[in-house]
């Protein structure tokens, strides 16, 4: 099985497991659902990767950071449950599972599963988004729109679209339901690795907010800012963030 196919399979199957957790714990508290979802999806992904790619290292949000990854040529970067708050709310579908593969300095495969939407977006073949409307749609968190997104909205004459997890936001840009995702305020490599891999495969612009490349598998996995947008908007978006 190719790395692309494996990423898609594992993200999809972890998502199916999470849907089962939601059903099983439908009457539990949101905190219980969050904890169970994080734990079970992480355990599934770690076991599945150990079986399918035993020589590769793994960086997971829910696991201890093993420094062996810094000496490894191939590192899987996973977020077992992106958007725990949205996952815990049974009527929401804007949460995701991220599975990406970094090899020799580059993201080479990735998948973003949106389990409650029945969708998995995965490399290598990702359809580009359809034509954008005249007013760019900037996707933001439903609770805390970052100031940089408001700057981009004002500079581009755009509108805000509220959504949950980072993976769901980038997926919305890939699917043509939004045009810009810009974030500055604290994220880690697992928040963006898989979404960025898939966005690149769809021909979208990806970078830091200063226009520099996004780099992964670094000693400190903090990667606090990211831009994913339609390529024709990239220059204006980056200018608005400065």
TrEMBL record:
Organism in which the protein naturally occurs: Mycolicibacterium aromaticivorans JS19b1 = JCM 16368
Name of the protein in question: 3'(2'),5-bisphosphonucleoside 3'(2')-phosphohydrolase
Binding sites annotated in the UniProt record for Mg(2+): 61, 79, 81-82, 191
Pfam families listed in its UniProt record: Inositol_P
Keyword entries, A-Z: Magnesium, Metal-binding
InterPro entries listed in its UniProt record: CysQ/Inositol_MonoPase (IPR050725), Inositol_monoP_metal-BS (IPR020583), Inositol_monophosphatase-like (IPR000760)
One of the GO biological process terms: sulfate assimilation
Reaction equation(s) it catalyzes: adenosine 3',5'-bisphosphate + H2O = AMP + phosphate
Keyword DNA repair listed: no
Cofactor: Mg(2+)
GO terms for MF: 3'(2'),5'-bisphosphate nucleotidase activity; metal ion binding
Lineage start: Bacteria, Bacillati, Actinomycetota, Actinomycetes, Mycobacteriales
